[in-house]
Amino acid sequence: MEFTINQIAAMLNGEVLGDGTIKINTLKKIQEGVPGSLSFLSNPKYESFAYSTKASGLIVNKDFKPSKKIKTTLIKVEDPYLSFTVLLEEYHRLVSFQKTGVEEPSYLGENTKIGNNIYRGAFSYIGNEATIGSNVKIYPNSYIGDGVSIGDNTIIHAGVKVYPGCKIGSQCVLHSGVVIGSDGFGFAPQKDGSYKPIPQLGKVMISDFVHIGANTTIDCATMEGDFTIIGEGVKLDNLIQIAHNVKIGAHTVIAAQTGIAGSTSLGKYCILGGQVGIAGHLEIGDNVGIGAQSGLGKNVEAGTKLFGSPAFDLREYLSSYAVFKKLPDLNNRLKQLEEKILNLPTV
Amino acid sequence: MEFTINQIAAMLNGEVLGDGTIKINTLKKIQEGVPGSLSFLSNPKYESFAYSTKASGLIVNKDFKPSKKIKTTLIKVEDPYLSFTVLLEEYHRLVSFQKTGVEEPSYLGENTKIGNNIYRGAFSYIGNEATIGSNVKIYPNSYIGDGVSIGDNTIIHAGVKVYPGCKIGSQCVLHSGVVIGSDGFGFAPQKDGSYKPIPQLGKVMISDFVHIGANTTIDCATMEGDFTIIGEGVKLDNLIQIAHNVKIGAHTVIAAQTGIAGSTSLGKYCILGGQVGIAGHLEIGDNVGIGAQSGLGKNVEAGTKLFGSPAFDLREYLSSYAVFKKLPDLNNRLKQLEEKILNLPTV
Amino acid sequence: MEFTINQIAAMLNGEVLGDGTIKINTLKKIQEGVPGSLSFLSNPKYESFAYSTKASGLIVNKDFKPSKKIKTTLIKVEDPYLSFTVLLEEYHRLVSFQKTGVEEPSYLGENTKIGNNIYRGAFSYIGNEATIGSNVKIYPNSYIGDGVSIGDNTIIHAGVKVYPGCKIGSQCVLHSGVVIGSDGFGFAPQKDGSYKPIPQLGKVMISDFVHIGANTTIDCATMEGDFTIIGEGVKLDNLIQIAHNVKIGAHTVIAAQTGIAGSTSLGKYCILGGQVGIAGHLEIGDNVGIGAQSGLGKNVEAGTKLFGSPAFDLREYLSSYAVFKKLPDLNNRLKQLEEKILNLPTV
Fold first, then answer.
1. Distance in angstroms (rounded) separating the CA atoms of residues C245 and C227
2. Residues near B276 by beta carbon (within 8 Å), at least 6 away in sequence
3. How near does any CA of chain A get to the CA of C161, in Å?
4. Max intra-chain CA distance, chain C
5. Which of chain C's residues have a Cβ under 8 Å away from the Cβ of A160?
6. Beta-carbon neighbour count of residue A257 at 10 Å?
7. Which residues of B touch C85 (CB under 8 A)?
8. Residues of A in contact with C123 (CB under 8 A)
């Protein structure tokens, strides 16, 4: 697979400066460019590499004006990073081994509806009454329970488990070890101090364009007819816990190992750091940002930035923490004052 | 499936107020009641819904006295929440597809003892010398190693892995991705700075009525003949880590993503929040409560409530944290005092 | 399997004091010794057990001088703990059921290279073009993607998933539920607030002698030709998250539930506690120690000990935290001073 810089520029609606007939066969970071590779310059702090890179081609901003002589052929575009991403994606599509067909043994239940051009890996299990869209890839050792529906073009990686009745949208990616629809953690305390499980009869609904990282778990809703809901375009990293009846708004992004307790509702376009913990039954607004390892115990208004455990305003937290670091000094200063005051003449 | 309110009241030993011949076909939350549904009122703060709900029936406390006119038929019981749970459970039993029989291909080792009425899903693996009780459900893609024993009525969801020799009680539920019996994290430091693995020869013992959430991991004990022990009725949420030789007392409840390090012993009836971390070789008493995200490094007496990382008394922590939030102000007040003192006439 | 104390002492280069002809058939902790068992005494605080243990043999330090009469036969060695570990390992090798051969059904792709004496469990999957060394054990329900290579003597436990193209060294142990090579968490924000996935084209490289705990996840690198790298002898506990392009130096040890964000590089011989969070794009030096639940947001020099979230110097953190516990008192003392000052005669 080789393309000339001119061909690539045409794909990107870019302008070529230099020799556009040079052939490109791989994509590299600017500091790791080699002859035949194409790189991009987006962050100005990497500009020095533009003059030293061995890459044959470099995607730059249309406003980029080299301050030194440059050997590499340039492609000027609106947004170099975005353009590079487009190329990566195209490249990914071309080089990825596009699995298709059915490997045996695999298990297919009764009364299923299966779309065109799907892949069913060996030891994959699809239960009864399931509905699988077109171009869906179901990798080996994965489990799709009875009555599950999966939209078009969704990828189910090896070892994913989807409990009966859950709904997965189209264009989703579920990574290995993901569990969808396990029981919510609901137990009724008994008089003798033991607990009785509360039947978890609801399901999980995953909207379109959702990505779910490896070994993340999403519990089902408690009541029949209810859903734990993951909104459109939501991106969940690895090892995240989403409890029963949680609702996550569209295009919210959550980093690894974060946990959200039961019945909490998260807005759209939120960004949560890693290892965040959110208590149950909360309402978190849109565009909320929460720093890594924070712990939330209260409702949060839209647009707020929070940090700490328990979390409060990010700037205020950092101010408090700056003083926390000097607490021994603060304590000493207070002691000195106390001694001074003690030695003052009494009124 | 339909029951009259009179029939349901009889099941619950409840008293009917209103039309008991109305038929019920589903269970709903009070705020989501529809004609034909039954709801419950337990928390007084939801009382207003009792007057507006469209539910046909409402389970209430025997002492409940409506302050306004009420259209819904009431069932008066001792404990509305508990009664509702009983109904949910019965409903669950009726509507759940009760899998039974053997799906092929599945793997059954030699010299196994298998009870009556069990389900073995496709691609499930049962090793040699294993003992499986009656009514056990082993879902697809799960792995039961050699010599494992599982008690009656236990459910092993899809993709659970139980290492050889571990013991699982009866009436347990293990959710997808659970790992029982992986090696404890034990390594002997060598003179050159590297580590040599210490063979992990013990097993895991799970008592009866234990629920284990998705992707939770429980390591085996270190020494031959020893067990990591999960007590009767213990409820573990998702993504929890239980290290080698840990012992958890009966009816203790642990929320998601908590981790307990090696050889720590936890009492009975404890409640641990999510993302708690407990160091190794500790003794935690009965009825201990630990707030979410807390970190424990010391032994804890029975009945204590702790919070923070490192954790101490819950109330004291909250008092300290209240001042922490005002530390910049505290610092300023101290500076002002220092300046004032400096300006005082010297003695 | 029985050995005389003399035979065992010979294996350990130890000196026998007492009856060396006694036969040993099991290994026990000193406080749980039984006739026929061998124990060890390493930690002086357990010395009292040396006089009461029922173990037939006891491994002690060569300098050990009993302060009371002792009935048990002693084996004096340089390092009792290390010697005991050597025995445990030997014992483990002898008693472990050494699986070998192929259980059916299992899946083997095309053009694979498979070494001698390997075990392929039922429902294990090996993709095309994979290379598997000798003595490798691949347990049931595990998935080895296309083009994966695995070195000699490595154990892949049940339900491990290795994405295509990843490289696993020799003498490694991967526990159940481990995921190697899932997509890095990389998404390009779009103008409308949604995110576009950045194709993740790199792989993961696991060096020799690496142990990876149950349900730990390691993401692939972003760029083609790049690797997320786990150095030689690294020990990872359960439920750890290693993001794309992370590099972990040799013989670093990481406790459970810790997460390391993208492109961070960790030195050699580091020790990380459980539930630690490390931000992306950081450089952490060699021999760094990080306390449990700490959060790192900055580069760290070699040899540093850190604690807290955000983390700083361990001793300083503990000093600050000691004052934090007394903050309400501090606040009161400050108030009292303010009142006193207010009551002073003005200058």
1. 6
2. B254, B255, B258, B259, B290, B291, B292, B293, B294, B295, B296
3. 7
4. 95
5. none
6. 32
7. 188, 196, 198-199
8. 123, 141
Q: Is A265 on the interface with B (CB under 8 A)?
A: no
In the chain, the amino acid numbered C200 is Q
ipTM, interface predicted TM-score of the complex: 0.86
Nearest-neighbour CA in chain C from A194: distance (Å):
29
**Once rounded to an integer, what is the mean pLDDT over residues A88-104?**
78
Give the 3-state secondary structure of residue A91. Answer: helix
Is residue C97 less than 8 Å (CB to CB) from chain B? yes
Lowest mean pLDDT among A231-245, A324-338, C35-49, C86-100: C86-100
Give the count of beta carbons closer than 10 Å to the beta carbon of residue A249.
22
CATH 3.40.1390.10 residue spans of chain B: 3-95
Q: Nearest CA to C79 among C98, C64, C101? A: C64
Residue spans in chain A of domains classed CATH 2.160.10.10:
102-318
B103 Cα distance to chain centroid: 30
Where in chain B is CATH 2.160.10.10?
101-318
How far A48 CA sits from the closest chain B CA (Å)?
A: 40
Span C272-324, pLDDT tens digits = 999 999 999 999 999 999 999 999 999 999 999 999 999 999 999 999 999 99
Half-sphere exposure of B130 (CA within 13 A, CB side): 25
The pLDDT of residue A1 is above 80: no
Strand-pairing partners, residue C15, are C76
Q: What is the pLDDT of residues B331-343, one digit of tens each?
A: 999 999 988 887 7
Residues C142, A141: C-beta atoms closer than 8 Å: yes
Two tokens, residue A72: 């590499």
- C167-176 pLDDT, tens digit each: 999 999 999 9
Cα angle: B265, vertex B266, B271; to 5 degrees? 160
Instruction: Give the Cα separation of C326 and C9 in Å (integer).
Output: 56
- Residues whose CB is less than 8 angstroms from the CB of residue B71 and which lie 6 or more positions away in sequence, other chains included: none
- Classify domain C101-318 at the CATH class level: mainly beta
CA-angle at B37, arms to B31 and B41, nearest 5°: 45
For residue A259, give the nearest of B122, B275, B326 by CB distance: B275
The chains in contact with chain C, meaning 3 or more Cβ pairs closer than 8 Å, are: A, B
- B333 Ramachandran zone, left/alpha/beta (phi>0; psi -120 to 50): alpha
Query: Among partner residues B105, B219, B257, which is closest to C257 by beta-carbon distance?
Result: B257
B338 to A334: CB separation less than 8 angstroms, yes or no: no
pLDDT at B346 over 70: no
Name residues whose C-beta falls within 8 Å of residue A40's C-beta, 6 or more positions apart in sequence: A30, A58, A59, A60, A80, A81, A83, A84
Q: Which CATH number describes the domain made up of B3-95?
A: 3.40.1390.10
Q: Is B46 touching A (CB cutoff 8 A)?
A: no
CA C341, C345, C346, C347 torsion-angle sign:
negative
Q: Under CATH, which number does the domain A102-318 receive?
A: 2.160.10.10
Instruction: Quote the pTM value.
Output: 0.88
Quote the pLDDT of residue A87.
85
C344: closest chain B residue by CA: B344
- Which residues in C lie closer than 8 A to residue B188 (C-beta atoms)? 81-82, 85
pLDDT in tens, B160-186: 999 999 999 999 999 999 999 999 999
CB-nearest to B217 from C29, C214, C251 is C214
pLDDT digits (tens, 9 = 90+) for A247-281: 999 999 999 999 999 999 999 999 999 999 999 99
Name which of C330, B322, B339, C338 is nearest A331 in CA terms: C330
Q: Which residues of B are catalytic?
A: 244
* Contact status of A51 with chain B (Cβ, < 8 Å): no
**Contact at 8 Å (CB) between B166 and B181?**
yes
Does residue A341 sit at the B interface (CB-CB below 8 Å)? Answer: yes
- B42: contact with A, CB 8 A cutoff: no
